[in-house]
Amino acid sequence: MGESTPSALKDVRAIVEPTAAKPSGQPSAAAARLTSLDAFRGFTMFWIVGGTGLMAGLQSLGNNPVLKALEYELEHTPWRGLRFYDCIWPSFMLMVGVSIPFAFASRARTQSYGQLLIHAFWRAAVLFLLGSIRESISLRTPYLIELSSALQPIAIAYFVAALLATKSIKLQAAVSALILLGYALLLAFVPAPQIPAGSYELNHNLVHYVDIALLGQRHWDQWPYASEGWGTVLSTIPTISTTLLGVVIGKMLVMPQLSLKRKAKLVGIIGIFCFGFGWALSQSIPVVMKLWTTSYGLASAGVACLEFLAFFWIIELRGHRRWVLLFVPFGTNALFIYMFASLVPLHGWVSIFTKGLGSVWPRVEPLTTAILVIAIEWWMLSWMQRRRIFIRP
User: Fold this and answer.
1) Rounded to whole angstroms, how far apart are CA atoms 64 and 391?
2) Distance CA 211, CA 229 (A)
């Protein structure tokens, strides 16, 4: 931590800029990583752990219509519709899938297929447990199963995707499509007591009924379920589809016979198709994130693909890497900073030292706090990155 800022930036640039081969002729771990994926992951995580607070702080300086529009996009849609913040969770589901072929290709050099699956099961179990710990601490009551936040659905989808990682792209795409189709048919044609088939209304749908039947009313009465209508058990199923789509993309990205331009074009085609099909389907199946309806699953996956395409095109094709210095540290230790931001009241601690500004410059204090929170997080993550400290299950 005592290093100068120029030195710290130089060390971080070593991660995001092309790295020469080591004397032994083996490429470094940094060179083997897909920088655009780390940057996309970091960009997405940035909005969770500090970006939304930064936008709110800027808006506190004065009513700016542009910032107001950005703030609108940085909140979940109350029920029907699609905003940028609604695409953050699907983006992570997609990124998990994209990373699997890279990880399997690396580990397959020294591990058997059985060992790969055992490792995947272990990672999934740790992620699932971390989801339980995070929610239990947040609600101050033990919660083993908590499927409305990202970690546990990611754990389940990751393991299912790992089981199919060595299968053909056609099979992976077919399973992904069949999951969405089956889920759409389930919600459209299966009724529940006093709930007609095809109901997508808040707290009056099949997903809501199954959650209460399996988890109990007490679970449902806890925040955020009753007030916001988050689905859990059934709506975890379609998240697997987005992760499998990521596996398909990841397998294409590791194909040496495809040029970078060809890979970018395929990602773009997939993104446009998914978004367009999802939006067209929304005429009969509403886009509801909290139920992860099929139209939402397709549209949000399309947005995630196009976001990733932007990073892939700028970084991998155009070679512009220095600008991602802010995001890469958030991406290479995404799990750590997610848990840290969830469990450590950093914003409250920083406010102790910035609240004095409130009496002098009340409009400046929220922005100052937000900037300091992001700066502390970034410095901590970049320090970990320089020392090759990566917290992964």
Assistant:
1) 39
2) 11
For 110-134, give the DSSP string: TS-HHHHHHHHHHHHHHHHHHHHHH
Residue 363 to residues 6, 47, 63, 226, 366, Cα–Cα distance (Å): 31, 21, 11, 34, 7
Residue 7 has pLDDT above 60, yes or no: no
pLDDT at 25 over 70: no
Question: Is 190 a domain residue?
Answer: yes
In terms of Cα–Cα distance, which of 307, 292, 173, 319 is closest to 229?
A: 292
Strand-pairing partners, residue 288, are: 80
Q: How far apart are CA 98 and CA 313, in angstroms?
A: 16
pLDDT tens across 372-386, in order? 999 999 999 999 999
Q: Are 220 and 211 in contact (CB under 8 A)?
A: yes
DSSP code of 201?
Answer: E
Quick check: is 252 in a domain?
yes
Domain residue limits at 340:
32-386
Instruction: Report, in angstroms and rounded to the nearest whole number, the Rg of the chain calculated over CA atoms.
Output: 22
Q: Tell me whether residue 169 is in a domain.
A: yes
Give yes or no for a contact between 206 and 199, defined as CB atoms under 8 angstroms apart.
yes
Whether 161 contacts 146, CB under 8 Å = no
Asked whether residue 127 is assigned to any structural domain, the reply reads yes
- pLDDT, one tens digit per residue, over 332-350 is 999 999 999 989 999 999 9
Total domains in the chain come to 1
